Amino acid sequence: MNKIGFQFHTPFIKNDPLWMPFGDKRTKVVDNLISLRKKYPHFVINGEKQLSLMKGNWGGIGTTPIQCPSWAMLSLDHMGRIKQPCCIGSADSKGLKPICEECGLGCYSVLVANGIKGN
Ligand code: SF4
Q1: In the chain, fewer beta carbons within 10 Å around the N or the C end?
Q2: First-to-last CA distance in the chain?
Q3: How buried is 72 (Cβ within 10 angstroms: 0-12 exposed, 13-18 middle, 19+ buried)?
Q4: Atom of ligand 1 nearest to the CA of 58
Q5: Closest ligand 1 atom, CA of 85?
Q6: What spacing in Å lies between the alpha carbon of 100 and ligand 1's midpoint?
Q7: Which residue, judged by its Cα, is nearest atom 6 of ligand 1?
Q8: What is the pTM of this model?
Q9: Measured on CA atoms in the order 95, 73, 37, 30, is the torsion positive or negative?
Q10: How far is the CA of 26 from the centre of ligand 1 (A)?
Q11: Which atom of ligand 1 lies at the shortest distance from residue 101's CA?
């Protein structure tokens, strides 16, 4: 292993125990990751701006992407069907949706951090 990228769990249900709530603890974790990034800039691939987004809601409202440029990537499932609203979603419109306002995904937040936003 010569690089590492961090992201946070994105829940599909409220009160998912794997989700780290926004607040002091999460902010401290992110600040620690930013310190790691400064110490090992060639090892930690996340930028400081992207990591900072993880302190709060950068994605959307409820299960609807707003700031998140979900349009920027075409994500297909094993049958070639388009997954919505993003790569962790489902092609089944009745399927559970990820909660955008609690999103911790790296592959879209890196776009937001670099100025690619919204729909
Ligand atoms: S990456 Fe997916 S879950 Fe996260 S904000 Fe964007 S559309 Fe929502």
Answers
A1: N
A2: 35
A3: middle
A4: 5
A5: 7
A6: 5
A7: 68
A8: 0.95
A9: negative
A10: 19
A11: 5
Q: How many A from CA of 92 to the centre of ligand 1?
A: 16
| Residue-wise pLDDT tens digits, 59-117 | 999 999 999 999 999 999 999 999 999 999 999 999 999 999 999 999 999 999 999 99
Q: What is the pLDDT of residues 23-75, one digit of tens each?
A: 999 999 999 999 999 999 999 999 999 999 999 999 999 999 999 999 999 99
Q: Write a three-state SS string for the chain.
A: CCCECCCCCCCCCCCCCCCCCCCHHHHHHHHHHHHHHHHCCCCECCCHHHHHHCCCCCCEECCEECCCCHHHCCCECCCCCECECCCCCECCCCCCCCCHHHCCCHHHHHHHHCCCCCC
Question: Which amino acid residue places its CA nearest to atom 3 of ligand 1?
Answer: 100
